[in-house]
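1st attempt posting a full record on here, be nice pls
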Amino acid sequence: MSKGRIALVAALLAGLLPVLAPAPGRAEPLFDAQGYRMTQYRAPVPDTAPGARSIGIAEVQALAGQGALLLDVMGLRNYQLAPDGRFLTPEHRDSLPGAVWLPVVGWGRLEPWQQDYLDRNLARLTGGDKARQIVVFCKVDCWVSWNTLKRLHGAGYSRLYWFPGGADAWGDAGLPLQRVTPEPAAPGTRP
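the predicted structure (as tokens):
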């Protein structure tokens, strides 16, 4: 490309930047029209989550003993998907013993593959039983778990529990944590 064309493209792009960039002082809204938290996921959370009962460590232990699904939804942003659906990431996660990690289901807006990932894994993990007890958590002050509970409640899951302290509270209480890996996406998934 000639120097003249490069200068022309640069000038055009510079003229578009004010249109493409957010206006000064206008941040993305915290919540979308459906009520999902869209940004600042690590911030103080309310005492309750949609359709769920908030619980502490003793109740998590009791529910785990009854066979409840322990669903860790701590977000994962630095990853690639292998052709077989495995998450390839330098990040690691220590979680509650027996927990299943679904790391891309709590964002405010899910891409179609992320929604499919959530739906497919929940159907498999619950055997299609929407009345199965599900304990959802991530870490302290984590809106990702709140968003996930809102999504599960909207999908008809009826026995939902929120452990807002998550793996942080569990570990702080001196309870053992276990290394988990993300449940794989469907083979061939392309984010």
